[in-house]
Specification:
Elements (H helix, E strand, L loop, with lengths): L1 H21 L5 H27 L11 E3 L7 E3 L11 E6 L11 E10 L4 E5 H4 L3 E4 L7 H6 L8 E6 L18 E10 L2
Antiparallel strand pairs: 1-2, 3-7, 4-5, 4-6, 4-8, 7-8
Amino acid sequence: MRKLGRIIGVGVVAAAAVALTACGSDDDTSSAATSTTATTSARTASSAVASATATLGRECTADDIKVAGGYGENPKITLPDNCDPPKQLVVKDLVAGSGPGAAAGQPLTMNYTLITWSDKKKLDSSFDRGKPFQLTLGSGQVIPGWEQGLEGVQQGARRLLIIPPELGYGKGGNGIKPNETLVFVTDAVKVGN
């Protein structure tokens, strides 16, 4: 909403600048200066509108998300303002693990931090509690975005998951707003028994 307001505001400034260009005086020096200033203002405003609208509709990628901190450290996650949440599950290993990848039926011990896309705030973190989360992959204990996103994860890996609403909590629940995109940074503490 703020972005749309900025675009409209810049458009109004551009229109005013163009209108000022058309309104001159009989004084040639004054008219030329006003015309040059108004034209420059209009170009600047038009460039700002073009720049702002160029990012509208672009889906974010894993590379747009900034994560500070290494494996085992409580991550600091920064979400961008210049792109839309992805509509598909995004999975990216930020730190490689080792050993066999996780498969359905295997127990996993995971640390995680969750940021909600709409307000860019931390909603939950096992790092903060100092206690990793245990699950069995493929058993329906977690949201589909985790079930799919943690397949193949190796012990010692730090993995980014961007989960669209239909693979998260959909219409809401568990403190999540309706149709919320979820961003998790997960650490695979243990894969298998």
